[in-house]
Structures are given as C-alpha cells and as structure tokens.
Amino acid sequence: MNSVRGLLAASVISIQNSCFVYPACQKCFSRLILDSRRFNCLKCGCTGEAKNAQYRYRLSLKIADTNDLFDITVFGSCLDPFFGVTAENLQRCIQDFNQLSGGTNTDASPGVLVQAVETCFIGKRFIFGV
User: Fold this and answer.
1) Separation CA 112–CA 92 (nearest Å)
2) How far is CA 43 from CA 20, 35, 51, 73, in A?
C-alpha cells in the first residue's frame, strides 16, 4: 500500500450508492453483521446486542480533477456538518421513515434523502485528503 498522502481538489460527478450510513464496529470500524438481536464483527470478533450497534457515515463518490476520474469513499464524522446530524441520528430518521412508509430495503436511504445528498454534493468542488 502506498503511504504517500496528499490533498486533491476535485468536483463530485456522482453519488455511487444510496447507503450513506452503516453499522460500524467501534474497535476497527468494519461493517457489522446484524441480525434481529445481535451484531458481530467478522474482522475483529467484537459482538453485542443489535440495539447497541453504532452507525458511521460512508459516502461513495465519483470525482474528477482537471485530468482524471476517481472513485473515493469518505468515512466518519467529517460528514456530520453536511448532513446536519450524526450518522446515529440519521439512521434513526431512516428507520422511522421506512417504518412509516412500509419500506422494505433497510440499507437504502429514502429517495428524498438521496436527492438532497445529490444536490449538496454533485457539481461542487471539495478538497479531499487521500
């Protein structure tokens, strides 16, 4: 793995998926496997009650600088100011919306949220730490 780090000024071309939060292990930040009662981290073996799972932001983007296209994923609380809430609170809102609307896809965000994220990011220029 290349250990060179730098900054990249680029514009967001598209949002790559509609899942903006994920249940994250608090030890290694890997995605947790959830069932109705328990969670399990396949990477570090951490387990617990599903109701205690914590969520983290994951925003997958296609970006472009003046020369190249890149696929990039932004993780964590640096996205709190853009969403206006923590990933935990956004997940609660998504769950509440899905329960009220009878939605069956618990990994997908409501369409109105996807549209808002697209409006906020697509066409805008950001500086990414890579």
Assistant:
1) 16
2) 21, 17, 20, 20
Q: CB neighbours (10 Å) of residue 79?
A: 19
C-alpha angle 71/63/31, rounded to 5°?
40
Would you give per-residue pLDDT tens digits along the chain (130 residues)? 567 889 999 999 999 998 999 999 999 999 999 998 999 999 999 999 999 999 999 999 999 999 999 999 999 999 999 999 999 999 999 888 888 877 666 566 788 899 999 999 999 999 999 8
d(CA 83, CA 59): 11
Rounded Cα gap, residues 50 and 3, in angstroms: 36
In angstroms, rounded to a whole number, what is the distance separating the alpha carbons of residues 6 and 116? 29
Closest of 1, 19, 39, 12 to residue 98, by C-alpha = 19
Distance from C-alpha of 93 to C-alpha of 72, rounded to nearest angstrom: 26
